[in-house]
Specification:
It is built from 25 helices and 14 strands. Helices cover about 55% and strands about 15% of the residues. The longest helix has about 45 residues. The strands form three sheets. It has a five-stranded mixed beta sheet with strand order 2-1-3-5-4, with helices on both faces. The protein is elongated and about 100 Å long.
Length: about 675
């Protein structure tokens, strides 16, 4: 018997040893595959990381990160965002540097970390199959990659939310089981959740999702204990509820100092979007989570988004068909809360102060990807019920995962290469100023926070003036400052961004259009660069009397610089009169034409810098319309013709000159001017 027992014991040890070796091999293969997934995610996030200019908020991040921690906290409270991301970036730029790629690389690493965190959350909630698909989807996600290439906190708060969710799941598991390591999970949850909410206020929506999840978990746990015969008082997990309440109280207590510091700014911060309905929000979100913000609104993209959402919904209804275990079902509703709670929170919060911005919902996206991955697994398992082959479910799952990956390729191409989706191009604006600026020029920065981003690129001698100095702007103070700037400088480069927020009444642009001469106006993404020539003493007006299309009379013009040099600005004021109601918008074109008919200076604009649209003119109203026209540098000296006309904004067709013209069918030659040597 002893020999037999020893033999059995020996075989048991052999089996345990083989099982242990198998587990080690599986973990090694898992680690190897995770490394491949991580480097795929890292490569996609570092690819062309510095191809685009920093935009305004990124410039703010870089400027804040180079200050002391106390200064960061104070200044961040005025910029509305909590300070933790800036603290991290503060130490990161000391290590990596402050180039565009350097400051964005922290976000790229966080984005790759979010892929791995999604894998482990999926593995905990659903198993490895769902975990791999979810990790794959996040690795390829244009939504994640875009914000992983931005020196802002949004991918950081997404990673923090994932880690908080992992600690939350671990805590629930400890509460439902023997309670081992409950204290460690609680401490981890407290620290990770505090870190997450100290990156962005909207992280509290994840705390809300966790709270709702805990209530559902409590109801399920109570029902389970009641089935086992426990009385109501003992069936309710009071200890778990008490621990959770304590953790929440600690999170809020640790957040009170920041709320005290930032509350005045939070209360006065304006809306960040136009009002919207719930249906409009859901329509926007349909392509957002799968395809990100680098696609145009179209039926095809909405259809792709609908397919992804259908997979997520299929995951939620599939338990009726495939009968998964209780852990899988718990993962489904926890992931649904993870995804949908921030969505409905942003809708409800926007009823009072509209605040929709796609970046605010990035932190909810892992819940969506987990549900889509669970939907892929459910579809594969459902297929297995009809196709009795072992290879069928894995094949269906793999095909679905690769098809979903292929669907995001157009969005990724736009993200990397399409200028229409590029960030605001401060780099390009400063390059334009550097190439064309004169010693007497000034730079006017509308929305004063831009000065940090402009200063990141511009290191020249021109003075920079941030206006308006406060929100809401003081009209008298702002106009006085503009008059003082115009008195000191010959030309003004105006960098205009977020004017609806910084200058909702258009004080600055109306003053410039009324007192200076617009030379050119160009957009760099959502960023506008306009050059104005400061007006000298008024010139004598010359009568014209030409009528365009029977609707608009050009009463006269004043030529303030009759002999501009090559590279200088010709200043011209036109006087228009509306003869009848005008139903279409028209643009004015001004050409300086040489003896060979070549255009050596041109300015096209709606009247008065786009602030006096022709459709708003009243019959008999007289409009004074100033222009500055740059004579192309290198233009040979000699006589040139000054030509003016109008054309339709929509179709580009010129208005005919019906009377009082100079012989041309669709333009008027106002004067002959002499271009001098530079």
């Amino acid at each position: 018997m002893g020999s037999l027992g020893n033999a059995r014991g020996g075989r048991g040890r052999v089996f345990r040893q083989k099982g242990s070796e198998g587990m080690v091999k599986r973990r090694l293969w898992e680690g190897f595959a995770l490394a491949l997934l991580f480097f795929l995610a890292l490569g996609l996030r570092f690819y062309r990381l510095d191809a685009q200019s920093l935009w305004n908020d990124e410039g703010t991040s870089v400027a804040l990160a180079q200050r002391s921690l106390a200064t960061i906290a104070r200044d961040a409270s005025h910029d509305i965002h909590p300070p933790l991301y800036y603290f991290l970036l503060h130490y990161w730029v000391r290590l990596a540097g402050t180039s565009e790629g350097d400051v964005r690389s922290l976000s790229a690493l966080m984005g790759a970390g979010a892929v791995i965190a999604t894998y482990f959350l999926g593995k905990r909630r659903f198993g490895q199959g769902v975990a791999w698909v979810a990790g794959w989807l996040v690795a390829l996600s244009p939504y994640h990659i875009y914000y992983s290439q931005e020196a802002r906190m949004y991918i950081g708060v997404t990673l923090g939310g994932l880690l908080s969710m992992l600690a939350y799941d671990g805590l629930l598991g400890a509460l439902a089981g023997s309670g081992r390591q409950r204290g460690w999970w609680a401490l981890g949850y407290l620290l990770l959740t505090c870190a997450t909410v100290y990156m962005h206020y909207f992280a509290f929506t994840l705390v809300l999702a966790q709270g709702l999840g805990l209530l559902i978990w409590t109801a399920r746990e109570t029902r389970s204990r009641r089935r086992e015969g426990a009385p109501w008082r003992k069936a309710i997990p009071w200890q778990a509820l008490g621990l959770w309440s304590t953790l929440l109280a600690l999170v809020f207590a640790l957040y009170i100092p920041w709320l005290y510091l930032s509350w005045p700014t939070l209360r006065s911060w304006p809306s960040v979007s136009a009002p919207f309905t719930l249906s409009a929000l859901l329509a926007r979100l349909l392509p957002l989570f799968p395809l990100g913000i680098t696609v145009h609104a179209s039926t095809a993209n909405a259809a792709i988004g609908a397919l992804w959402v259908a997979l997520a919904l299929w995951a939620l209804v599939s338990p009726r068909l495939i009968k998964p275990n209780a852990l899988h079902i718990s993962g489904l509703w926890q992931s649904a809360l993870y995804w949908l709670t921030p969505v409905f929170a942003i809708y409800l919060a926007s009823l009072r102060r509209p605040m929709y911005n796609p970046k605010f919902l990035l932190l909810a996206s892992p819940g969506f990807y987990l549900l889509v991955a669970a939907g892929v697994e459910a579809l594969a398992q459902t297929t297995g019920r009809f196709v009795r082959k072992r290879w069928a479910p894995p094949l269906v799952g793999a095909c679905c995962a690769f098809a979903l990956g292929a669907s995001v390729i157009p969005s990724l191409k736009n993200l990397y290469f399409n200028p229409a989706f590029a960030r605001d191009n401060y780099r390009g604006i400063v390059a334009t100023i550097n190439a064309s600026a004169l010693a007497d020029d000034a730079i006017l920065i509308n929305a004063p926070s831009q000065i940090e981003t402009v200063g990141y690129y511009y290191h020249g001698p021109l003075p920079m003036y941030p206006l308006p100095l406060q929100r809401p702007p003081d009209r008298a103070q702002t106009e006085q400052a503009l008059a003082e700037i115009a008195a000191r400088h010959g030309r003004i480069w105006a960098i205009l961004w977020a004017t609806n927020e910084s200058d909702p009444e258009g004080i600055i642009i109306h003053w410039l259009n009324g007192h200076c001469y617009p030379v050119f106006d160009r957009w760099y993404g959502n960023l506008r660069l306009a050059l104005y020539s400061v007006a000298p003493a008024s010139g004598e007006e010359q009568p014209v009397g030409a009528v365009f299309g029977g609707q608009i009379r050009l009463r006269g013009f004043a030529l303030l610089t009759p002999s501009p040099a090559s590279g200088e600005i010709l200043q011209l004021r036109l006087t228009w009169e509306a003869l009848q109601p005008i139903e279409r918008r028209y643009k004015v074109f001004i050409h300086i034409v040489d003896a060979r008919g070549r255009i050596v200076g041109q300015h096209d604009s709606e009247p008065v810098g786009g602030t006096r649209l022709t459709t708003l003119w009243q019959v008999g109203e007289v409009i004074e319309d100033p222009y500055g026209v740059l004579v192309v540098p290198g233009t040979p000296p000699g006589e040139h013709t000054l030509r003016v006309g109008l054309y339709g904004l929509e179709d580009g067709r010129r208005l005919e000159v019906t009377s009082g013209g100079s012989g041309l069918p669709d333009a008027v030659d106002l004067a002959t001017l002499t271009v001098r040597h530079a």
